[in-house]
Amino acid sequence: MAVTTKEFSLNHLAIIMDGNGRWAQKSGLPRVAGHQQGVETVIQIVDECVSQGIHFLSLFAFSSENWGRPREEVDALMGLLLQFLSSQRQRMLDDGVRLRVIGDLTRLSEPIQKALANAEKETSQGQNLTLILALSYGGRDEIMRAAQKIAQSALDGDLDINKLDNKTFSSFLDTGDIPEPDLLIRTSGEVRISNFLLWQTAYSEFYFTDVLWPDFNAAELRKALDDYRRRKRRFGLTDDQLEDL
Ligand code: FPP
Fold first, then answer.
1. Is 85's C-beta closer than 6 angstroms to any atom of ligand 1?
2. pLDDT digit string (tens) for 18-51?
3. Is 174 in the pocket of ligand 1 (CB under 6 A)?
4. Is residue 144 one of the residues assigned to a domain?
């Protein structure tokens, strides 16, 4: 019997939301208009993930490299984030969505840090979907920060460095208590990982679409999920071994 992908449920979906700028430019609009429309897509996709019974959704909302963008664009993105937190507060509570944030949050302004901490606290009882926003996030940066914490823990005598294994290392990442993504989607036709969840996507399936993020929607997501369900995940094993498992 061949292993069917039905056996691989989709517990964690990660998305690199790309193409906002190009979407705006195509219509002669400022880049920020693309980000605004991108937030509408976020709202629709969160909703669809709840309907699909997906338990974790990670969104790459602002990378550590995005700090290098023009000041106005960075400010606009931070403004949209604040707006999102307040406009979606009730909806998250009603829909059982729990918010989590990963990344180097120390680089975010104090009001943003406070709003995020508050939203995480308020939504902490959400049981349906954990929405993970990657902000000021870079995969290498996260791994490096984990290595620093591990070294400190060893120096403090709390960790025996000879016992360090994959599982213990993972627990020091920002995503320590979050399962690894099953599927990673990137929109806009770019085919690269761009420093997102480098450690965690070791065995994730990838799905690339030319659709720009502001044009992505529930139907496009269902297409990606159908594609994922037709795949065969091997995790480095042979078909026979998987059958035995
Ligand atoms: C990539 O498009 C997108 C970003 C850098 C930011 C993504 C942000 C949002 C969708 C809105 C904020 C999100 C939340 C949750 C409030 P790009 O600007 O690189 O597009 P381009 O490659 O076409 O220039």
1. no
2. 999 999 999 999 999 999 999 999 999 999 999 9
3. no
4. no
